[in-house]
Each structure stands twice: as structure tokens, then as C-alpha cells.
Amino acid sequence: MSNVTTNHAASAALTVLRGINKDLGVVQQQVSSGYRIATASDDPTYWSMATTMRSDRSSLSTITDALGLGSSKVDTASTAMDTVVSLLTQIQSKLVSAKEAGTNKDAINSDIQQLKNQLQSVTQSASFSGENWLYNTDQHPSTQQSVISNFTRGAGGQISLTTIGYDSSQTLMIDTADASRGLLTKNVDASTFDTSSSGGTTARNYYLLAADTGTAPAGGTEIAISSSTTDDELTDMINVTNSLLKSATSADSTLGLMKSNIDDQSDYISKLSDAIKSSVGDLVDTNMEEASVRQNALQTAQQMGIQALSIANGMASKVLILLQSK
Q: Does residue 325 carry a pLDDT above 60?
């Protein structure tokens, strides 16, 4: 039944069209923003989960930066330690060659001193971001180093950080404040080694070099040779140098292991960050293929709704024309 004052068909068509326009607006917003759930009102549960995961990913980004800084510190120390090991190997070779009859020990000692100077230079330059794990001038140095490696979120939402630790006293080569703390500056008792050296009355505590301040450890003899150096003294110096070389090699290996751990952790953090990003996308991102199909369908429905409204309005106009013709 048609009614002149109230067009029920037009009202119904308009109601349907409003619903279509509302749904179309939502889909267009999802397509333009890329988010299916952009605010808490869209879906409180998924929005909350996605927000927490985004926060975790941001924390992982900070940890990646910290790992990069830690890796640079370890790289610097490891590169310097590689050189220290090489220089100690050369010093040991020089001392071994000095045992050959007829060698010029003074000339060999000159070469050894040059290598010692290089050790001084290498250890002093092994500094990154204000930290030097090979060279110390502080009376009370901090040797417990750490790098933030990850964080964990507990069942209650609490966050705890995990670190990769390292005792840099292992790589402390020269200490100007306390020579006994530096591997290259401390006294080493040659009598502890199984050698054929009788030792006699000669001091058997040796250190490789004095700190750059010129302060030598008490009760020790510097590893240096001359034409008057005996075979027993040379044997002691070779054994002490070999002991220093073993300790330096061990420290270098530890640095290499730490570098490997940092690299592995960096790779894990990167993959975890990508996984979180993908998971957040699954929760709140718009499925563009589905949204595009739905948008086209709603646009078609919108056009049909407009046509239906036009037809409903046209029917009322025809009724009015009939009434006016009476």
C-alpha cells in the first residue's frame, strides 16, 4: 500500500543504504590505513595483545643497538689481542734464536724492544667508547663487563633483562696503577716451570715490560738480553714468555667465544623481532585481498541502494500525480 505522507519503501531503502554506507566507510578506512584493528574500540582483546607485542619489539630494537655496541667493544679488544698474541710469538722466537751459538744478542734485544714498544702502542689504542679492556690506569678498575642480550616477559607481565658477562681482567695486558694486575707487567716465577735451568743465585722472577710510567714490579727482572745473558737465563725468559703467550691466547679465545655468542644473539633477536612483527600483522593488519573484494561488493550494493531509493521516491511522485489529476 502506498501512502502519500509516509513513504515506507523509501524509508526502508534509506535504512539499508545507511547501513551499506557505514560498512563501506569502515572497509575504506581499513584499506587506507592498512589496519583491520586500529583502535581499542575495534577489538579490545586483539588491540591490547598487539600493543604489548609492539612494545616488546621496540625493546628488542634497543637490545639490538646494545648488542651492536657490545660487539664493537669485543671486536676492538679481540683485534688488539690477536696482535698481542702475534707480537708475543715473535718475541718468543727471538729469544729462542738467541740461544744459537754466535748470535748477536744485543741486536736481537733491539728487535725485542721494538716488539715491546708495539705491545705498548697496541694495548693503549685498544679503546672503544671510553673502555679499554687491555690497558688500565685506574687504581680500582672495573673488570666485570656485560652486554644486554635479551629480555623476558613473565606470566604477570614483568620484564627481566639477561646479559652476556665477561671478566676483562683476563685481557688486561698492561696496568700502570698496579703492575701485578697486567699480564705483560707482572712478575712470573720461572722456577715453576720444568726446565733444565739450575737458576743458581740469579733472580727467577721475570716480567716482559714495565708500564709506560716506568714503574717496574718489585723483585723482578725484565725480559731483555745482552751478550752477558746466560743460557739458563734465556731458558727462564723463554718459558716465562711462553706462559704469557698461553695466557694471552686463552684470553683471545674467550673474546672470540663472546663475539660468537653476541653474533648468535643478534641473529636470534633479529628473527624474533621479525616473528613479532608478523604476529602483530596477523592480529590487526587488513587482509587487502579480502577487503578489496568486500569494498567492491559494498560499492555495488551502494549503487543498488541508491537506485532502490530512487525507485521508491519515484513511486510516491506518481501517486501524487494521480491524486492531482483527480
A: no
